[in-house]
Amino acid sequence: MIKVVSRGKDTADILIHEQIGADWFGDGLTSKSFAEDLAKLEGIRQINLRINSPGGSVVDGLGIYNTLAQHPARINVIVEGLAASMASVVAMVGDNITMGEGALMMIHSPWSFAMGNAEDMRKAAEVLDKFEGSLLDIYVKRTGLARADIKSMLAKETWFNGAEAVEQGFADEAAAADEEAAALVRTDNRERFTAFASSFRQHKAEITPLRIAAVLKSVTPDANEVSKMTTATASVSTADIEAAAGKAAAAAITAQTDRRRKIRDSFGKFSAQHRELLDSCLEDPACSADDARAKLLEAVGKDVVPIAGTVQITQDSRDNFLAGAEKGILAKLGIEKREAGNEFTGMSLPDIAAHALTLAGISVRGLSRDKIASRVFATHSTSDFPQLMANTAGKVLRNAYENFPNTWQLWAAAGSVSDFKIHPRIQTGSFNNLAVIPEGGEYTFGSLKEQYENAQATTKGKAIALTRQMIVNDDLGAFNRRAQLMGRAAARSVNVDAYTYLSSGATNLGPTSADTGQYFNANAATTAGGHANYTGTGTAIATASIALGRKTMRVQKDASNTETLNILPKILLTCTGKEDIAWAVINSATDVSQSNPAKKNYAADVARLTLVTDPFLDGVATAGTTRWYLLADPADIAAFEVVFLDGNQTPFVDEQVEFMTDAMAFKVRLDYGVAIGDWRAAYLNAGA
Q1: Which candidate, 223, 640, 279, places its Cα nearest to that of 453?
Q2: Any bridge partners for residue 669, and if so which?
C-alpha cells in the first residue's frame, strides 16, 4: 500500500521508499495496491511524490507511472535519496522533478531470468526488447534527448547526481545545500568555536583556519591542540577570528552534509520503517555512517526468526499465460502442433482476452464479448493481451517471411552494419605474389591498392490492425491472414529492392560505382570507370556464350591492374522465360548446340553453374526477357550485398493500442539496404 505521510485539503505527500513490485515475501509496492489506494484520496489537486527506491518490477513500475499520469493532480516529484531502475521511470511522471541534496538517479536496460530451450531464450530477449522500448518512450518524452543516446545510457547503466540529472533533462532542479546540516553547524560547532577562540585572546594565540578546522572536527578542544596553536609573539584580531570561523564553518557544513547523506543512503528502503532511528542518527553529530549501519542492522534483526526449509521459485502466472495462450493460438492457426493439456488451445479470442484481464486484476464477470473487447483496449497498459497478440503476429509474420521464395540470397551476400550511417566496403584487391627469401634474407612488405563502395541501411515498414470487431467475432483467421501477408510483403520488399538495384541505372545496366563507371559496361578495365563485364551485342544462353562470360570474369585484374584474380562464376541468373532453356544448357551431358551429339557439354562438365531465375527480371524494361548474368559465389566474392542493421534479417514487430479507433496497431519494421560488392564478380550478357 502507499504511504501518505501528510494530507491537506487538496494536497497529499506520498512516499515510495520501497521496492517496486512484490518480492518473494509479499513486500514491496505493486501497481494494483498503488492504484487502489490513490483512488481513495479524493479531491487531491497536488501530489508531492517523495522517492527513495532501488526500483524493481517493470510491469508494476509502468502501471504506477500510468496511474499517476492519468491522475488530474499536479505531480511534484522529489528524489530524496535514490531513484534507480524502475523508480527513475516512475519519477518521469512528475510535472516538476527535484533532486534532493546528494540524491542519485540511475537508469539501465531491463533484465530478467529465463530458462528453457533456445526458442524460449529468443522469446525472452524479444520481451526485454519490448520493455526497453517502453522505457525509451518515457525517457525520450521527458528529456527530449535522442532515442539512440538514451539507449546507449541504458546499455552502460548510467548514474546521475542532481546537477547531471538536470543537465540531461531527467530532472528540473537540484536542491540547495542541506539546510538542516548547515543550521546544525551554525548553532553548535560555530558557537563552540567562538567560545574557544575568545578564551585564547589572553594568551595572544595565533589561530589559523587549518587549526580551527581540526579543533572543530573533534568538537571538544584538546589541551595539546591549544598548546600547539600558541606562540610567544602573535596576536589575533576579531576580524582574523571571524574570517577563520567562516572558513571552518563552511568545512564543517560540508562534512555534516556528507555524513547525513551517507546515513540516508545506508538506510535506503528501511527509511520509512525505521524513521525514528534514522532521525536520531542524523541529529547526532558524532554518529558516523558506519555507526548508523550497525544500529540499523541491529534494529532490522531484532525479533526476526529464520525461515525453515527452502524457497521454491515458480514461473509467474502471467508468463504461463503468455506462453500457453501463444502456443494455443498458433496451434489453432496450424503453425505449431497442439499441446496436450494446453487449456488455451480451445479458447476463443474473447475468452483469451477475458483471461488476460482477470490476470491483471480486472473483473470480467457478466461482461459481454463487446464489453470484454472494449475493456482490453481501455486497460492496455495493465493487460497482457496486446503483448500476446504482438508475439503471435510476430511468429506468424516471421514464419511467412522465412517461407517466401526469395532468390536474392543466392547471388548477393547478406551483410551487417551497426547504424544508419554510410559504411565503406573494400573491394577485391590482390596482395603481391610471394617473393623468394634467400637464406638470412629480409621479408618485404606487400602492397594493396584498395577501392571502396558504400553500404547503408534504411528503415522500411507497415502496420496491421486487430480491431474490436475481430475480437468480438473471434475472427482470428482474418488477423492471421493479415500477418501472413505482411510477412510475405516484408520478404518480397527485400527481394524486389535487390533486383531493382541490380537492374537500375541507364538502360538497366546497374548502379554507378565509386569509380564513376556504371556497374555493367564494356569499356576496358584499364580506362577510368571501365569494367569490361558486359556484352552488349547479346548472344543466347549457350555453351559457347557461357564459356566466353566465364573467361571474361576469370581474367579480371585487381585494383592496381597487375594481378589476375581468376574469379569463377557460380550462378547463372535469368528471367523465368529462359528458365527451361538455361536449365537444358547447363545440365545436358552433351553440347546441344553441336552437330556432334557425343561432344561433352562444357557448361555442365566444367562450369557447373547453379541456375537462379526470378519473375522480377521478366518485367525489366530493357531486354529483360533475354538478358542473363553470371555471378560469383557470394560467400567467396560478392557482386552485391544486402546489409541489415546489426545483421538482423528478421522483421521487428511492436504493438500499440489506438484509443481513437478501437484497434491494436502492429508495426512491422525492417532495417536494410542494398549495396555494390565488387563489379569484377559479375558479368552481363544482353542475350538474344
Answers
A1: 640
A2: 461, 652
How far is residue 174's CA from residue 165's CA, in Å, rounded to a whole number? 8
* Residues forming a β-bridge with 395: none
* Rounded Cα distance, 486 and 630, in Å: 32
DSSP secondary structure, 185-229, as one string: IIIIIHHHHHHHHHHTGGGT----HHHHHHHHHHSS--HHHHHHT
**3-state SS class at 386:** helix
Question: Cell digits for 554?
Answer: 576469370
Calpha distance 542→353 (Å, rounded):
62
The CA–CA distances, whole Å, from 358 to 70, 326, 330, 354, 372 equal: 22, 17, 22, 6, 11
- Give backbone dihedrals phi and psi of 399, rounded to 5 degrees, phi first: -65, -45
Active-site annotation holds for 355: no
CB of 596 closer than 8 Å to CB of 578: no
Active-site residue identified among 17, 108, 355, 380 = 108
What distance, in Å, lies between the first and last C-alpha atoms of the chain? Answer: 81
Q: Is 602 helix (H, G, I), strand (E, B) or coil?
A: helix
Mention every residue, 6+ apart, whose C-beta is less than 8 A from residue 504.
510, 511
pTM comes to 0.50
What pLDDT, on a 0 to 100 scale, did the predictor assign at position 665?
Answer: 78
In the structure, what pLDDT confidence band is assigned to residue 337 with cuts at 50, 70 and 90? confident
Residue 108: active-site member = yes
- CA–CA gap between residue 100 and residue 257 (Å, rounded): 12
Q: 538: closest CA among 574, 489, 564, 488?
A: 574
Q: Which domains does the chain possess? A: 3-174 (3.90.226.10), 179-299 (no CATH), 317-403 (no CATH), 456-685 (3.90.1690)
* SS3 state at 629: strand
Closest CA to 335 of 409, 394, 252: 394
At residue 325's C-alpha, the angle toward residues 361 and 118, to 5°, is: 115
Tens digit of pLDDT for each residue in 651-688?
888 777 665 567 777 788 899 999 999 999 999 999 98
Report CA 6 to chain centroid distance, whole Å: 40
The CA distance from 508 to 624, in Å, is: 9
Taking the CB of residue 346, how many other CB atoms lie within 10 A of it? 11
Determine the Cα–Cα distance for residues 163 and 350; give it in Å rounded to an integer. 50
Instruction: Locate 355 and state its grid cell.
Output: 483471461
Q: How many CB atoms lie within 10 A of CB 431?
A: 10
189 vs 682: CA distance, rounded Å: 85
Task: Round to whole Å and give the CA distance between 39 and 21.
Answer: 19
pLDDT digits (tens, 9 = 90+) for 273-328: 777 888 788 778 788 888 888 888 777 766 544 444 433 333 456 778 888 898 98
Which pLDDT does position 558 carry in this prediction? Answer: 87
Which candidate in 31, 85, 430, 545 is catalytic? 85
Q: Which of 44, 153, 160, 152 is nearest to 102 (CA)?
A: 160
Q: Are 613 and 652 in contact (CB under 8 A)?
A: no
DSSP string, 406-467: --HHHHSEEEEESSSS-EEEEPP--PPPPPP--TTPPP--------EEEE--EEEEEEEEEE
Q: Tens of pLDDT along 428-449?
A: 655 566 788 888 888 876 655 5
Residue 564 backbone phi and psi in degrees, to 5: -80, 130
| pLDDT value for 377 | 76
Q: Cell for 628? A: 542473363
Q: Mutual orientation of helices 275-283 and 238-267 as an angle, nearest 10°? A: 160
208/245 Cα distance (integer angstroms):
10
DSSP secondary structure letters along 11-50: EEEEEE-S-BS--TTS-SB-HHHHHHHHHTSTT--EEEEE
Short-list 614, 603, 623, 632, CA closest to 536 = 623
